[in-house]
Amino acid sequence: MDEHPDSLTSNGTWLFNSNTRYYRSYKHFVGKEEQKQRIALGTNVINHSWAQDFTLTRIFNNRWSFSIDVPVLVNSRSSLYEHGGQQRHYTYSYGLGDVSLKAYAWLLNPARARKGNIQLGLGLKLATGSYTYQDYFYTATGSKVLGPVDQSIQLGDGGTGIITELNTYYNFSHKFGLYGTFYYMISPREQNAVSTARGGTPSARSLANGSDIMSVPDQFMIRAGANYGAGKFNFSAGFREECLPAKDLVGGSSGFRRPGYIISAEPGITYRVNKFSIYTFVPIALVRNRTQSVPDKITTTTTGVYTQGDAAFADYAVNVGITFKL
26, 312 in Cβ contact below 8 A? Predict the structure, then answer.
């Protein structure tokens, strides 16, 4: 949270939030180096991702709360290499994503800690979204085969995640303050048994380095910035890092994943009136880095040739939402 908890809540009430997130990833990176030739040659992958999150929060008192988040996802992915390399074709996925349940507690008594506080959150990410979603892929001969869509547009990862979260704020005055968020999801399951061969036969290389099966990775996010209030508006400016690490904290890290991180500048604006608020946040990418995965490292060791895969990143994402006090 980036504000005082009394701004929208009171004891024994409910909050409903609807958040829409959209991004288009199409620029390929190996490490921090953009592969500009991919766009020039038309061989880049283009993902469109739309997520609609519905979150219901119960405020028990001024210290404890509980929330449930239900995401609905719509994704499309177009490429040449997945479809015989001759023409660009699309695969799609849509439906329920992975539902999350979280409990929160303010460490300090909000009635006394008026300027700042720290909130801890603990929860579970459930495997409710399909991680075996399938669509048709074209072959070089023009025929079609049915297979699991790419990991980037699967609706879930097939694992139960342990969510840890820390939110904090400090207000220097009624108008100006700082905020920070740290989120880490631990995924104990190593792999989800879903093939990466898109309905075909896994390659010898993928079998050798373990990338023939999708992994279930950890994830984390860090946000920090400042807020300034002006009447019913609140303006914010901060930084945001989103990361999919190459190795997990718990369990193994083998299987296919595209590890990396993106650091963004994150401007935002919120309008509040009576029982609701409307907001927009637009993270704009500053640094994009596709790091070396475990299969990359295995291939590097076995062949003696340094190997590092690529990943497509977006220039920005758009988050628009509304929160109601019920």
Answer: yes
The average confidence (pLDDT) of the chain is 95
Q: What is the pLDDT of residue 1?
A: 38
For the chain, domain boundaries? 5-227+240-265+284-325
Three-state SS sequence of the chain: CCCCHHHCCCCCEEEEEEEEEEEEEEEEEEECEECHHHHHHCCCCEEEEEEEEEEEEEECCCCEEEEEEEEEEEEEEEECHHHCCCCCEEEEEEEECCCEEEEEEECCCCCCCCCEEEEEEEEEECCCCCCCCEEEEECCCCCEEEEECCHHHCCCCCCCEEEEEEEEEEECCCCEEEEEEEEEEECCCCEEEEECCCCCCCCHHHHHHCCCEEECCCEEEEEEEEEEEECCEEEEEEEEEEEECCCCCCCCCCCECCCEEEEEEEEEEEEEECCEEEEEECCEEEEEEECCCHHHHHHHHHHCCCCCCCEEEEEEEEEEEEEEEC
Structure token digits, residue 163: 């969510």
**Model pLDDT, residue 8:** 47
DSSP 8-state symbol, 256: B
Q: How far apart are CA 130 and CA 143, in angstroms?
A: 26
pLDDT at 12: 76
Alpha helices of 172-246 — where are they, by DSSP H? Answer: 204-209
Beta bridge partners of 227: 177, 236
Beta-carbon contacts of 220 under 8 Å, excluding residues fewer than 6 positions away, are 182, 183, 184, 185, 242, 243, 245
3 state DSSP class of 100: strand
Dihedral sign for Cα atoms in the order 239, 47, 250, 129: positive
The DSSP code for 31 is B
Dump pLDDT digits (tens) for 58-100. Answer: 999 999 999 999 999 999 999 999 999 989 999 999 999 999 9
Position 213, amino acid: I
